[in-house]
Amino acid sequence: MIAAPAIEIEGLTKTYGSVKALRGVDLRVKRGEILGFLGPNGAGKTTTIRCLLDLIRPRSGRMRVLGLDPAKDPVAVRARTGYLPGELNMEGNLTVAQALHYLNELRGRRSDWSFVLHLAGRLELDPAVPIKNLSKGNKQKVGLIQALMHRPELLLLDEPTSGLDPLMQQEVYRLLREARDGGATVFFSSHVISEVEAIAERVAIIRRGVIVEEAAPGRLIDMSLRRYRVRFSEPVEVTPLIALPGVLPVGSTDGMEITLQVEGEVDRLIKALASFPVSDLQSEHLSLEELFLAYYRDDGKGKGG
Ligand code: ATP
């Protein structure tokens, strides 16, 4: 039997009073992939993850997590997933080891304690320290350990490297890759583009409660936006080029050279350029960072609308 996708979301909507947090999210995560869920503050990342775990109920839409309906099988869904919330609430008087022991008991002792200690070692976290004495970054490590320790099939991680220094971030990336190599699916939210570029095999970009793009990070760069530097052999009037749909000038122009950002098909621009005295044409790819900014540009020409 073919295993169901790790996550299937169709037409998910969620409102908080008058705030439309999710406006019809469609997303599918394959088994064994690392998917980065990218979006700025307030885009709907946390809301989506919380719906998947039935921590909040959507207004409408369909969801399946490991083939299960979270509203009908919340216990099974949680047993088979590892969840890192944005903010972890744990009993402060317990030490790290006691808190993790307690969780392990609640989960039916599914974690191998040597693996828990291994994770603590990798993240340089002292299990003997009381939770209440931990820094923000070290609390984050506890959150990561509790998400990983029972080797779940699916990891749902809300900003996994938040508060961690760059070396620790790298260690977390390694742990996530190892989990994936062991067969797990990793779904993590982030607003850090470099992080998504570093480990995600696919990226879904959410903007104002809707997925606006979904692809491999490299492919996303390839297909969506390009930048062309055009040099002319004599001064020209560039207005007809700038007026083309999907074309935006970058920086200023002296009439001899212009850089144009193009969304979608470049055919129209190439045809328009045929009537210009072009002496040189160079194509540049946008970084994921630039692409991301273009999505969130608020001048009405941004991709997400
Ligand atoms: P961040 O990166 O800041 O965590 P996010 O992408 O996770 O952002 P959400 O936390 O899902 O975004 O929020 C989506 C929208 O819903 C935002 O406008 C937010 O203000 C709103 N929102 C989230 N939770 C609540 C709540 N409990 N009550 C009211 N509005 C909420």
Count of the domains: 2
- Could you tell me the strand content as a percent range? 25-35%
- Please give the CATH class of the largest domain: Alpha Beta
Assigned CATH architecture of the largest domain: 3-Layer(aba) Sandwich
The major beta sheet can be summarized as: 6 strands, mixed
Mean pLDDT: 89
Ligand types = adenosine-5'-triphosphate
Low confidence ranges = 299-305
Total E-strand runs: 13
Q: How are helices and strands ordered from N to C? A: EEEHEHEHHHEHEHEEHEHEEHEH
Which structural class is indicated by helix and strand composition? Answer: alpha/beta
The CATH topology of the largest domain turns out to be Rossmann fold
- Molecular shape: elongated
Distance between the termini: 41 Å
Explained architecture:
With 305 residues, this protein is of the alpha/beta class. The protein folds into two domains: 7-220, 3-Layer(aba) Sandwich (Rossmann fold), CATH 3.40.50; 224-295, 2-Layer Sandwich (Alpha-Beta Plaits). 32% of the residues lie in helices and 28% in strands. The chain contains eleven helices and 13 strands. The strands form three sheets. It has a six-stranded mixed β-sheet with strand order 5-6-7-3-8-9, with helices on both faces. A hairpin with a 2-residue loop joins strand 8 (202-207) and strand 9 (210-215). The model is unreliable at 299-305 (pLDDT under 50). The site of adenosine-5'-triphosphate has 13 residues, from strand 2 and helix 1.
